[in-house]
Amino acid sequence: MSSNYKIIIPMAGWGSRMRPLTWSRPKPLLPLAGRTVLDYSLRQFDTLPGLEHAEYVFIISTNQGDLLQKYMQEMHPEKTVHFVVQQEMRGQAEALWQAREFLEGQVLIAFSDTLIETDLSFLPSEPLDAVAWVKPIDDPRRFGVIEVDDQETATRLIEKPTSLDNNMVVVGFYYFKEARLLLEAIVEQMKRGKSLRGEYFLIDAINIYIERGGRMRRELVSTWLDAGIPSAVLETNRYLLEKGLPGGDQAEQPAGVAILPPVYIAPGARVESSVIGPYVSIGKEASLKNVVISNSIIDARAVIENKVIEGSLIGCDVTLTGHFARVNLGDNTQVME
Fold it and tell me: What domains are defined for the chain?
């Protein structure tokens, strides 16, 4: 078994819940607290022993490759990244099957629109075959949960449980000591036709993995963030700003501008006669004048004047002028009143 880890990040999909922002770029490259969703996804692995030798496998859609490859080359050139294209959206397990040439040895699987905070330093001494990260929530019925026996070993995973008795929700972050055994379970899942509406879910493959003797346990996390829908992106932005985790240097507070922290203003952004914050991220070369903005993300080169904005996502190269608004605007949009 290879001692090096493979980090598999399935991110294929059309980003329909984040439109119009995802018409022009993949969801992992959307702005978030001074970086991108992808940057924060990669941060999850900072505590992994031997991270410098890890290989990354991005499972992408047909429309995502060029932008993601360019971004990784520019921002993370030190990382070894493989790109696998999922031609059809046929579920999580099928996405992993498309990446089957990399499913060997130790792997971590993390879905790109969920972010957690965890310490991975225990993995070299992990006694079991697999680990699923979980978080207790009040109502688990929209998610999947993991059931365990008296020894805390998983007996099965349940998608969308009807009961509230088990609230340990799987968050979409997994470790497998030998990925080949997971791949064999996925192949068996496909032979059995274990799918729902044409999609092969990873939970069903893991249940076959457990059925075949794979020993899995759960690992508790206290922080589970979402970047899958606009309201969740804004909530995650608030959390990361409060934690002081914006990316890179920050511009100095402009004269004549009231800042209500926490706020991130990228170097090169121009802000005049405005009130910014709380919970605002402003991208590079954005230009804001006579605005009041709170709880929002403003991307690079946006031009906003004479506007009161709250709870909004503003894409790149947007021009927006007028009065109060709550908007989600994709790249290269103009709204003038």
Answer: 5-230 (3.90.550.10), 249-335 (2.160.10.10)
